[in-house]
Amino acid sequence: MTTLPDRRLLLVHAHPDDESIGTGSTMAHYAADGAHVTLVTCTLGEEGEIHLPELAQLAAAEADQLGGFRIGELAAACAALGVTDHRFLGGAGRYRDSGMMGMVTNEHPRAFWAADLDEAAGQLLEVIREVRPQVVVTYDPNGFYGHPDHIQAHRVTMRAHELADAEGIAPDKVYWTALPRSVLDAGMSHFTESSDNPFAGIESVDDLPFGTPDDQIAARIDATEQHAAKEAAMRAHGTQIPATSWLYAIAGNFGAEFMGVEYFTLAVGEKGPGTGRYGWEDDLFAGIDAAAPTRVAAAMAGPR
């Protein structure tokens, strides 16, 4: 028997580095606060662009060894965030990075985009049975910005929640990552002027594939005390995030505020107490009674 902390948070991300960019400070914040943080990554990110010339031969079109290399990068990132419970969905290499929408890689036999939904959700359900998280974090229906693996991660997570609900073990809340329109408006000039900008040429937030109206945001997690941990985790993903990245450029202008504050919409569950104009929560566990410790048996990994 293993005793897990009262508060348990599960995050489902598509590729190594997504966890650090989108939720790194939140993960570090809760890990440092004693919560049990579980990260499930759905692919190895085999189709990622390599920003280290000396490792260019690892690319999918060359030796096709990038995925294995990124396992090490992810381990280093999790160490920087203080996260000790990390799994790959179905095991490392079960699902392959599908590449961007419409690419021939979407059709690979192991492409996550083409994964059987119930099979993949069943693998995530096993994690839910074992950990019994009260809170789950993943992407919105568009995968935040339209990547097929992000969209599939959303679908798999929501289906796993349905399956868990049928067993009476569904997490209390499901959040989707988000960026408020007001934050995008404030940083747009810095974003468009930064180097290595994946949305070069876009001058209005209306043209970005993400951005949520402020009144639809449910939670604002101020983890500025963990901004250095997030940056260290991002730097661990050196093949994917070059030193000249727009992420670091914006961080140079906004510092801890950019690196340390992350936002979410609430997809499942009841919103807890909040503050400010829109009543944003400052805790993903707001409104959840997590006082009683839960004892989790290893046998819980199977159906009950």
From TrEMBL:
Family, per entry: Belongs to the MshB deacetylase family.
The protein's enzyme class: hydrolase
EC numbers on record: 3.5.1.103
Role noted for this protein: Catalyzes the deacetylation of 1D-myo-inositol 2-acetamido-2-deoxy-alpha-D-glucopyranoside (GlcNAc-Ins) in the mycothiol biosynthesis pathway.
Reaction(s) this enzyme catalyzes, per UniProt: 1D-myo-inositol 2-acetamido-2-deoxy-alpha-D-glucopyranoside + H2O = 1D-myo-inositol 2-amino-2-deoxy-alpha-D-glucopyranoside + acetate
Cofactor details (free text): Binds 1 zinc ion per subunit.
Entries under HAMAP family matching the protein: MshB (MF_01696)
Gene transcribed to yield this protein: mshB
Presence of keyword Metal-binding: yes
Keywords linked to the UniProt accession: Hydrolase, Metal-binding, Zinc
Species name: Micromonospora matsumotoense
A Pfam family: PIG-L
Positions that bind Zn(2+): 15, 18, 150
Gene Ontology BP terms: mycothiol biosynthetic process
Cofactor(s) named in the record: Zn(2+)
Source superkingdom: Bacteria
SUPFAM superfamilies according to UniProt: LmbE-like
Annotated protein name in UniProt: 1D-myo-inositol 2-acetamido-2-deoxy-alpha-D-glucopyranoside deacetylase
Gene Ontology MF term list: N-acetylglucosaminylinositol deacetylase activity; zinc ion binding
